[in-house]
Amino acid sequence: MRSFFRRALGQILVDGKFLSKRTLSRALEEQDKTHELLGAVLVRMGVLRPSDVSAPLLIQEHLSNIEDAAKLAAGQRQLLGALLVQSGKITARQLDEAIAEQQRSGDKLGEVFIRLGILTQMQLKGLLELQHNQESPASNPLRLGELLVATGQITREQLERALSRQKQTGGKLGEVLVSEGFAHKQQINHAVRLQKLCVNSVLAAILSMGALTATASASTVSLQWDASPDTAVTGYKVYYQPDSTATPFQGAPMDVQNVTAATVNNLDPSHSYSFAVTAYDATGAESTYSNVVTVPEMQPPTTAVTYPANAATVAGVVSVTADATDNVGVTKVEFYVNGALKATDTGTPYVFSWDTTALTPGTYTLTTKAYDAAGNVGQSQSVTVTVANDLQAPTVSLTSPGNNITVNGTVSIAANATDNVGVSRVEFYLNNALLGATNMAPYAYSWNTQSIANGVYNVTAKAYDSAGNVGLSQVVTVNVSNDVTAPVVTLTSPAGGSTVSGTVSLTASATDNVGVSKVEFYQNNALIGTSSTAPYSLSWNTALVANGTYTITAKAYDAAGNVGASQSASVTVSNAASDTIAPSAWLTSPANNSIVSGTVTISGGGKDNVGITRMEFYQNGKLMGSDSTAPYSYSWNTTAYPDGSYILTAKAYDAAGNVGQSANTYVTVQNAKGKKK
Q: What is the CB neighbour count within 10 angstroms for residue 434?
């Protein structure tokens, strides 16, 4: 009984002449007793080295179909006939005869081989595929370097270095490996031998696939049995059923008449199948079932490396995880690094703790293999990671603020950081307390110094890499000096208790220990406007508010945001549109027709239906001065005028702008010497 869906390891070893059929039979008998893997039995028996088993296992997964096998075996160009001779399918003499027949007929050599019964159409297809892929640059497990890595003779890094050196020298890879001290000549010779044996195995596999279809959705099983000694037997029936050994078998049997062999096609490889044979005579009577033979299901599990991700950078101890599923059940998952088995896990979650600390930094390939109880094996896609066991800490230096400077407000703390692999983040500290962190260059942090008390502080930075190494910057000492003194502001106009109307000038004086940035004016705590330069003033249009009493205040600000508030002034707004009555006004001194000299106090009074806002004093119709508070007066220096007669008058104003004028008062100014008494 033989299955061609997945080529057995034993058959690969025999095809490649790793061992004889007789030795394989002995190993299989031993395996039935110990239930070990076949490779382990052969190693224990001393037939193969452990490394010799690795090479056939590498190619086993590629022998499911002709296309994969042809690509694997492709190497130095060989003609079709030479390939057949190398594989043992034909002799050199038979090749000569086929070439002679080709010359006579004019047919292609492949067509001659089919006509002579040497090849089937499918076998010819496989060999032509192989020729097509020969000398292709694709890397595969049969290349010398890959075989040396797989069998543990050299490391992946050594192979990469040797390939780089080979490009420079143009020498053979084996010679480069020996000259670089990566391998001995005996190891190279042994690997070359393994290479040839594996190629023979692949060629034999291609030539045995003639009964397969191009797809892997079905399989073929061949059965053979001993003839019955009963002379009454006229034929045989083959019974088979999926996933059960129970008798009687379900389903109609295959009647093969009097032959003692049968081929069952189109079986689903995802199911196991049980087979038995009965004999029947001319009357149709059947014997009991023969022994039941079971072929296990042949669908391999699927598996994938789930962590780390492809192209990731790792360091230290890494938890390599995998997924694996199977139509029946996964029995174990193996973890490989650069093709070398590193761990086996028999239960979910499938995890391998990979200690990379002792590895040389570089690129590594991770794969997994999943097994089911039937021995089917599924392999994952490879995941390539970079091991960066970085022991070098980053370097970091503060670039601002400068050392021993005075700072205030918001300050930018900046740093430069570099690392041999890469900086993962930079942290900023104030007196060893973390201020903030960033993982993006340029590395900076905005520090609000107003959140702390004035004083001397130490600023430092730390830089981290992905391996956890930490670099520390120099210490920068700064003096925090933020302005905490509020400005002083005084409202100078209007006066408290005054009555105002129309447009009124609001004025204030303000001082600060550093400087005043602005003064704001408020009416009943509502902002009216702002003045930014001294003298600080604002025009207030009282016509926009209702008549009544209002509180006027001012606030002064400095650049640090400190605020000082003025005293309040309560004023009465009177903008009555119906007030058309002018105030009455009069002068109370000096007396009419009096003689005056020196400085004379001119006094006046007035009366209004609403209220007087100010009085103005005139001499001969010229304004001398005004007074906005009662009692209203003006000091007149008569010495500035020539002696003579003068007319004095006064005007009274109300909030509506009405004006009343006093009667004339006549005075004589007499300041000359020798005046009459």
A: 10
Strands 594-596 and 665-669, by their bridges, are: parallel
Asked whether 496 and 569 are in contact (CB, 8 A), the reply is yes
The token duo for 383 is 């995941």
Give the integer Cα–Cα distance in Å for 483 and 559: 8
CATH class name, domain 302-387? mainly beta
Across the range 483-488, mean pLDDT stands at: 91
DSSP 56-70: HHHHHTT-SSHHHHH
Residues 251, 239: Cα–Cα separation, whole Å: 8
Give dist(CA 241, CA 62) in Å, integer: 29
Residue 621: left (phi > 0), alpha (psi -120 to 50), or beta? left
Q: Are 259 and 236 in contact (CB under 8 A)?
A: yes
Residues of the chain with CATH 2.60.40.10: 219-295, 302-387, 395-480, 488-573, 584-669
Query: Which overall architecture, per CATH, does domain 219-295 show?
Result: Sandwich (2.60)
Concatenate the DSSP letters of all residues of 371-434 into one string. EETT--EEEPPPEEEEE----PPPEEEEEESPTTEEE-SEEEEEEEEE-SS-EEEEEEEETTEE
Under CATH, which number does the domain 395-480 receive? 2.60.40.10
SS3 574: coil
Closest CA to 648 of 606, 594, 581: 594
Check the CA dihedral 17-19-23-29 and report its sign: negative
Rounded alpha-carbon distances, angstroms, from residue 108 to 103, 115, 120, 203: 9, 11, 14, 21
Torsion on CA atoms 22, 24, 30, 35, rounded to nearest 10 = -160
CATH of 488-573, one of 1.20.1250.20, 2.40.50.430, 2.60.40.10, 3.40.710.10: 2.60.40.10
| 608: nearest Cα among 584, 631, 633 | 584
Beta bridge pairs of residue 367: 336
- Confirm if 595 and 667 have CB atoms less than 8 A apart: yes
pLDDT, tens only, 314-327: 888 999 999 999 98
Contact between residue 371 and residue 303 where contact means Cβ atoms under 8 Å apart: no
Contact 204, 198 (CB under 8 A): no
CA-based angle 668:672:677, to the nearest 5?
A: 70
d(CA 367, CA 549): 89
HEC profile of 505-536: EEEEEEECCCCEEEEEEEECCEEEEEECCCCE
Q: How far is CA 255 from the centre of its chain?
A: 65
Classify domain 584-669 at the CATH superfamily level.
Answer: Immunoglobulins (2.60.40.10)
21-25, 76-80, 108-112, 565-569, range with the lowest pLDDT:
76-80
The overall longest dimension of the chain from CA atoms, in Å, is 188
Rounded CA separation 550/527 (Å): 13
Q: How far is CA 404 from the centre of its chain?
A: 39
Give one DSSP letter per residue of 529-566, joined into a string.
EEE-SSSEEEEEEGGGS-SEEEEEEEEEEETT--EEE-
| CA proximity to 149, closest of 129, 185, 130, 177 | 177
Q: Left if phi > 0, otherwise alpha if psi is -120 to 50, otherwise beta: which for 73?
A: alpha
pLDDT in tens, 486-519: 999 999 999 999 988 889 999 999 999 989 999 9
pLDDT in tens, 20-55: 888 888 888 887 787 777 778 888 888 888 777 777
Joined together, the tokens standing for residue 654 give 């109300």
